[in-house]
Amino acid sequence: NATLDVYGSGWVCQRGYYKSGNECQPVQMPQNATLDVYGSGWVCQRGYYKSGNECLPVQVPQNAKLDVYGSGWVCNQGFRKADDKCVSAFQQ
Q1: Is residue 71 in a domain?
Q2: Rounded Cα distance, 33 and 31, in Å
Q3: Between 20 and 30 A from 49 (CA), which of 13, 42, 60, 65?
Q4: What's the structural domain count of the chain?
Q5: What confidence tens digit (pLDDT) does each residue in 32-53 have?
């Protein structure tokens, strides 16, 4: 589960493993997670957010959509955030 590093003088763990002392251990991923860009950790899939060691679904209220990162939400145009919901931007 390891290969030579780019310099040929050391080693790195293959994708899906992380370095732990002198070993490569498999990345343990919860449901709704994928490997991170480095391949040595994990991130939640779009529509989920990290909470401890798990990925929980983002609760998107009415008149909202997932944010650009996919781990939160934003109100649709014409609405503004008020606590955990979206209300008309024209409402006082």
Answers
A1: yes
A2: 6
A3: 13
A4: 1
A5: 999 999 999 999 999 999 999 9
Tell me the whole-structure pTM to 2 decimals: 0.79
8 located within any domain: no
Beta strand segments in 1-92, E:
2-4, 11-13, 17-20, 23-26, 33-35, 42-44, 48-51, 54-57, 64-66, 73-75, 79-82, 85-88
Contacts of 53 (CB under 8 A, 6+ apart): 30
**Domain presence at residue 76:** yes
Instruction: With beta carbons less than 8 A apart as the criterion, state whether 19 and 40 touch.
Output: yes
Segments forming the whole domain that contains residue 90: 58-92
**Residue 56, amino acid:** L
Per-residue confidence (pLDDT) for residue 52, from 0 to 100? 97
Residue 69 has pLDDT above 70, yes or no: yes
